[in-house]
User: Fold Aspartate aminotransferase family protein from Halomonas rhizosphaerae.
Amino acid sequence: MSHSLQALDRAHHLHPFTDFKALGEEGSRIIERAEGVYIHDAEGNRLLDGMAGLWCVNLGYGRVELVTAATEQMRRLPYYNNFFKTTHPPAVRLAEKLCALAPAHLNHVFFTGSGSEANDTVLRMVRRYWTLKGKPEKHWVIGRENGYHGSTVAGMSLGGMAPMHDQGGPCVPGITHVRQPYWFGEGRFGDVRDQDPEAFGRQCAAAIEEKILELGEETVAAFIAEPVQGAGGAIMPPASYWPAVKEVLSRYDILLVVDEVICGFGRLGEWFGSVHYDLAPDLMPIAKGLSSGYLPIGGVLVGDRVADTLIQEGGEFFHGFTYSGHPVCAAVALKNLELMEAEGVVERVRDELGPYLARRWATLADHPLVGEARSLGLMGALELIDPASGERFDKALAAGNLCRDISFRRGLVMRSVGDTMIIAPPLVITREQIDDLVTLAREALDETARCLVPRAADEPQPEERPA
Ligand code: PXG
Assistant:
């Protein structure tokens, strides 16, 4: 059965972020069902899902309450829109719940179908806001290199993923990027070497000010960033970074957009990454964990400063999506948030599971392949290095992809971003399952070492490298 599905997949299905030809030759892995923190493939293998799907299945798989919420809403009202002065109970209740959970100054939400649409909405709102304020010259948005804000044209342009710009450009005009606060990649290795992490964090914040002055201080509308970069490699900025960024932005009266698509809804041990870092954003795009990924829904939480202007001075805002606030998605998201609250999921990540993962994950730092093991809440990263040289591996070896493939084969979904291995498991993972995750990660590192650096391993078996 799985072979015929693979053949049909190859024949008709273009996968996201995929080399179509290479996948066609290899064949895709078919995931058939899941429960808790485990997924099951068509070959009968069970894997610990160390990535919560794609950073989204925060409550884990198989939650019947979410299925019931969807079914009931589908029966009652499967679709209606929020255009033309109408609304429906799920959208209203979800809006109220989100504003209650968010920091006090965020009292409005605009719904979208995804994180990418949320960031398109951000760009529209930011520019509209400054025009309404009589400052249309304030139109530049500063993002960060290796930031990720989605795959629509605006999302891609706000993000700083060079390979996406190369394929999808020219980007939306008026968007530019500054250095990311990636100490291991750019402050220890890379062009700035062996720098103190806090000095590096301040230098990255100073790069924003330099960019503002280069563009003209009257022309910058907003700065957009993830609290912790997710797709870029689970990059937690040095402690000095965010306070210095906030100071620069307030000095030049620039809006702060904090993209919470990954960090929101408990990932970092608070409802929002902005709470962990004390950011008070003007705009906060959300998606993914909002519904634990059970149905697609996103949105932008809008702070009073921007909302008041759009409401009082804006007239009609010519923007919206057919599925903005879709009733079934909204009903599921609301139930998801209620379950997270009732079960104390976020507090458990902050007080128990995050610190536990941090202790267990840190034990991997002694592995010869690991240059750094870092985590925050239930997000973690391992930086792979070549033990022979103490430097990063030759890119041609694709060490991260090798380690990821080995990890999958051994029963752990661990992602690679270059030579950075990352995890972000469901927030309902238990301590025992965290132990299993760390054990499987170590085994994957051991096998990767045997493939890549036979000298450093106990039993040199270079032929072990899988096809
Ligand atoms: N902002 C952030 C911070 C994201 O991580 C988006 C916006 C876009 O959301 P949608 O729902 O439009 O995909 C994201 C999405 C990866 C990966 O490989 C990460 C995302 C999407 C796909 C792959 O880590 N994040």
User: Anything to note?
Assistant: Residues 54, 114-116, 119, 148-150, 155, 226, 230-231, 259, 261-262, 287, 298 surround PXG (CB under 6 Å).
